[in-house]
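Tip: read the tokens left to right.
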């Protein structure tokens, strides 16, 4: 077997030449340790330049975009590592990537603050895999090198070390693999807590609130908390199990649970729950089932607890149909390493973070809910409208935008009527009634605005009259501004469009989209329509892959780039090469996306010029 030998050279040496190694990828059916297949070395060429090399055993390969170097000294800075061109490979973990199948050597400039000879430590990062299917963990090595006297010195405070770009999901994956189990779980809990206040999780609030409100007069803070805990545990356990299954099977989890018939079924369920809140019928489990559950547990409330758990489990698959960097990081580590304990623990911790605010909702609702009387009726009516809103929100994944807006118009108008927006009040009416009428009247006006917007082709509830304008004293219906996407269905379609963009000297980006993807529609409504974003992308080809059907062609495109699901955006330079490390996963607001484009498409100067033009 080969040994790792990091040599230190005190004077100028010839260019680094890496010899062959004797290690083999076939070691009695077992893979050798990483240090026997990838051997890093550093040699000083002169006082301002070193050569970095990594030996690669046949049968293994290194990812080009995973190699980076930085100086650990405050007296020197490493410049950009000039890596040679690698070979294209469709990798099962990262999609189409550039790799090195043989030894790689690259020059590295060193900026020096002082000219005298010095000992320098360089931190080298790299990652590789075996052709036989094993992917090694990312590696970090600190390598010493002795530099001779430098011919030139620099103000190193102005030198920025060039490191390989790392996407957010890649950084989070590094947290899972490089931190202790408890640290990783804690950080992913915080990541889940951040997701709790996004459209991915907020729809769970009316579901849980409806369950607690259904308890009637007997609900207490402790009862509300335990119901919320049952709901959250159902969500977390099933979410984690489904994530593990998805990573193991390599399937697009969201597409599986967002078929139109499933969405329609659950929308009908929420409509039924809403009717129960409005008092159309008494919504409860059949008495025979309640009796059996009570007899089995000795607790008459067990049926509701089980119901909360089941609703949490179903909500985790149907309602939280969002792709986030933390989720992708956990799924990627599962797929790469097979370490279900670490990645599963991170995913479970993230799920608990997503559900933590729901525990507060449960306890607070148990404390604040009125026990009986007209106020309780009003609260249940409010939850009923929330349930109907949730049904519309789910149907929006499969309905045209203007139809969805019309449904919102009817719902919000009726909510305004229920609040007393069209009711005549006496001068001696209670303050609460007057406030209700005021808010109700505003809701009815907004409902009418949504109705006009929907009838004229509008689709953005936050800009209901965007499709209307007043010109020459008359009302004009404007055509909705279509985004300049070119749809690609197959890998061949994508290659053809990228080749055309390369011939035109244009960069490109590929947006993975699905009709059921809420974050995809957020990107289209609020990010891609932003004037500054469109200006920044004016010399960029917009490509979009609609993976709603999740057929073989869709799966081939997803697999090419190692994408688990939409929304995911892949960037390509003007040379047609993928810009690794700049992928966008999940929803990104316009301002953040514009800032991201400065790096993803070649730097702030080029973006600023396009925006100004």
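Filled-in amino acids:
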């Amino acid at each position: 077997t080969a040994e790792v030998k990091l040599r230190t050279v005190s004077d100028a040496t010839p260019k680094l030449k890496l010899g062959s190694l004797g290690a083999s990828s076939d070691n009695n059916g077992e893979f050798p340790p990483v240090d026997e297949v990838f051997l890093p070395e550093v040699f000083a060429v002169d006082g301002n330049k070193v050569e970095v090399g990594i030996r690669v055993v046949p049968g293994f390969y290194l990812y080009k975009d995973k190699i980076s170097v930085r100086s650990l000294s405050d007296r020197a800075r490493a410049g950009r590592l000039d890596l040679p061109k690698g070979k294209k490979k469709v990798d099962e973990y990262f999609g189409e990537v550039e790799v090195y199948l043989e030894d790689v050597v690259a020059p590295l400039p060193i900026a020096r603050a002082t000219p005298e000879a010095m000992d320098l430590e360089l931190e080298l990062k790299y990652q590789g895999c075996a052709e036989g299917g094993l992917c090694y963990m990312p590696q970090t090595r600190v390598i010493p090198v002795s530099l001779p006297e430098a011919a030139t010195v620099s103000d190193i405070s102005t030198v920025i070390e060039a490191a390989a770009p790392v996407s957010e999901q890649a950084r989070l994956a590094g947290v899972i693999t490089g931190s202790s189990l408890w640290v990783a779980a804690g950080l992913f809990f915080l990541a889940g807590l951040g997701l709790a206040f996004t459209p991915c999780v907020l729809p769970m609030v009316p579901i849980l609130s409806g369950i607690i409100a259904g308890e009637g007069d007997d609900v207490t803070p402790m009862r509300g908390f335990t119901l919320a805990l049952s709901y959250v545990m159902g969500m977390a356990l099933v979410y984690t199990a489904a994530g593990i299954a998805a990573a193991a099977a390599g399937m697009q989890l969201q597409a599986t649970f967002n078929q139109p018939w499933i969405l329609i079924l659950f929308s009908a369920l929420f409509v039924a729950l809403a009717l129960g809140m409005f008092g159309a019928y008494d919504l409860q489990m059949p008495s025979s089932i309640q009796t059996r559950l009570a007899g089995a547990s000795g607790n008459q409330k067990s049926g509701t607890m089980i119901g909360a758990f089941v609703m949490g489990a179903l909500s985790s698959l149907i309602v939280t149909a969002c792709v986030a960097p933390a989720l992708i990081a956990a799924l990627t580590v599962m797929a790469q390493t097979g370490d279900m304990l670490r990645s599963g623990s991170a995913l479970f911790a993230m799920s608990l973070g997503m559900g933590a605010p729901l525990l507060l909702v449960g306890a607070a609702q148990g404390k604040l809910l009125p026990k009986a009387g007209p106020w309780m009726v009003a609260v249940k009516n409010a939850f009923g409208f929330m349930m109907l809103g949730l049904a519309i929100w789910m149907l929006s994944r499969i309905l045209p935008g203007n139809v969805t807006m019309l449904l919102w118009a009817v719902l919000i108008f009726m909510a305004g009527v229920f609040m007393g927006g069209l009711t005549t009040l006496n001068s001696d009416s209670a303050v609460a009634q007057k406030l209700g009428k005021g808010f109700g009247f505003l809701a009815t006006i907004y409902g009418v605005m949504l109705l006009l917007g929907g009838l004229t082709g509008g689709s953005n509830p936050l800009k209901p009259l965007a499709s209307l304008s007043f010109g020459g004293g008359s009302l004009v219906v404007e055509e909705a501004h279509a985004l300049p996407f070119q749809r690609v269905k197959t890998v061949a379609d994508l290659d053809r469009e990228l080749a055309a963009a390369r011939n035109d000297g244009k960069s490109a980006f590929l947006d993975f989209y699905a009709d059921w993807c809420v974050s995809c529609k957020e990107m289209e409504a609020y990010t891609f329509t932003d004037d500054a974003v469109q200006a920044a992308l004016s010399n960029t080809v917009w490509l979009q892959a609609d993976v709603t059907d999740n057929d073989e062609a869709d799966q081939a495109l997803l697999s090419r780039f190692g994408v688990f699901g939409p929304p995911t955006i892949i960037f390509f330079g003007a040379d047609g090469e993928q810009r690794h490390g700049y992928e966008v996963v999940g929803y990104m607001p316009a301002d953040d996306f514009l800032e991201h484009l400065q790096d993803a498409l070649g730097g702030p100067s080029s973006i600023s010029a396009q925006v100004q033009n």
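The radius of gyration is 29 Å. Residues 220 and 377 are 18 Å apart (CA to CA).
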